[in-house]
Amino acid sequence: MTIRVFENDRLAAKAAATIFASEILKKPDCIIGLATGSTPVPTYQELIRLNQEGVLDFSKVRSFNLDEYVGLAPEHPCSYRRFMNEQLFDHINIDKANTHVPSGIGDDPEKNAAEYDAAIEAAGGVDLQLLGIGHNGHIGFNEPCDRFIAPTNIVTLTDSTINANTRFFEKREDVPRKAISMGIRTIMSARRILMIATGEGKAQAVRDMICGDIDPRHPASILQAHHNVQILLDKGAASLL
Ligand code: PGA
């Protein structure tokens, strides 16, 4: 693991965007794995700036997002598809047909999950996967558990995640209880992983990820076993290291 600590979240985001830029410049048709939540937003703002200034061309880039809520249609204001459109895709020259977010609707969520892994594989696998980390150590929506779940799958969200994500909804009851998430194997199959964690609230999860045993009760700890992981932290998230 390469760990870099920045003065603040803006500088971490600039570094993250630079890593994306180098990947896209090297391989214009690369496959990027994307994340939702508050953490990646400053990185997306940097990528939008680089695209609008003509530095970065997304016209051949393909993307796969980590997760989606079960039961929310793509046009739902709190869906992750909508989030990605609003925070990134609507502002860059990516072809929306090349962007993928797991489907949280339909009669057979398990089939959606299997098809998502198959689509990633058929595309050639993820070149660079962006991750955030939950306060409980989750990556994607892989919650603390007694074993690692390998493929993309349907997960039951923990109280910690529901509480953390209530801020995006009108009230807690509106937060879906289930989600479809890339599994641990799916995430670990990426050729390169970029994790961003910012704020003191993430400090314990970051410590468990880096300093603890590889343990499914701290899902992000599995990243210790990946051969190419960069972790970008601000001072707050690094405060317990
Ligand atoms: P956050 O979420 O960026 O909104 O804190 C990160 C995550 O849950 O993975």
Strand order of the largest sheet: 1-10-9-6-2-3-5
Largest sheet: 7 strands, parallel
Helix content: 25-40%
Structural class: alpha/beta
Tally of helical segments = 7
Radius of gyration: 17 Å
Strand content: 15-25%
Hetero groups: 2-phosphoglycolic acid
Average pLDDT rating? 97
Give the total of beta strands. Answer: 10
Q: What gross morphology would you assign? A: globular
Q: What is the N-to-C succession of helices and strands?
A: EHEHEEHEHEEHEHEHE
Distance between the termini: 14 Å
Low-confidence stretches: none
Word description of this protein:
With 241 residues, the protein is an alpha/beta fold. Helices cover 31% and strands 17% of the residues. It has a seven-stranded parallel β-sheet with strand order 1-10-9-6-2-3-5, covered by helices on one side. A three-stranded antiparallel β-sheet has the order 4-8-7, with helices on one face. The radius of gyration is 17 Å and the shape is globular. The two termini are 14 Å apart. The mean pLDDT is 97. 2-phosphoglycolic acid binds next to loops.
